[in-house]
Amino acid sequence: MMLAFDGAVIDGSAYTDVVGLAHRSPAWLDGIVSVWSTYGLALFAVLMVVGWWRARRVGARAALIALGAPVTVVVAYAVNDALKLVVREDRPCQSLRVVTLEACPAPGDWSFPSNHAAIAAAAAVALLFVSRRLGTVAVVAACAMAASRVWVGAHYPHDVVAGGLVGALVAFLLTAAVRRHPDAVARRLTATRLRPLLVTP
Known about the structure:
The protein is elongated and about 55 Å long. It is built from 10 helices and no strands. The termini are far apart. The chain is mainly α.
């Protein structure tokens, strides 16, 4: 049986420093970070909907790229989750036995790479192809998400960095592929019942 990887040797001390800082911080700050860590991914969904809504007014090509954003996020999540099963890194709260803001997940809920960071980074990169303004907001939010996952004790710093890289790379490759031949696909889809998703009435 494969043994779980111990990520504490990489940046365990940095993790304990951040968790210790969280314990010394005001309760209101910890509360805000915890809420963001738990529910912040919803913001990326909202940004993708806004990006798609605006893209429809630009044209079918832009709308197609915007519609590809959530698909990209799902693929990035799948790739990232597959890596978790390969690496099998225990959560830091299990390895280091520290008290964290977020309840420590059960054994077998692997830590590396961070799914939250991967999803956020994938959404941010995909949104940069849709709207520079929305993408910039998403990039800032993705960095905040990654930091929050360490703050609440769910991940080591290297977990969120790796998750961010996985999500960003998958999003860049998939979105770049869609942008190579978007016009032909857009024309085909506008001739189907999916037309309202691509252009305004």
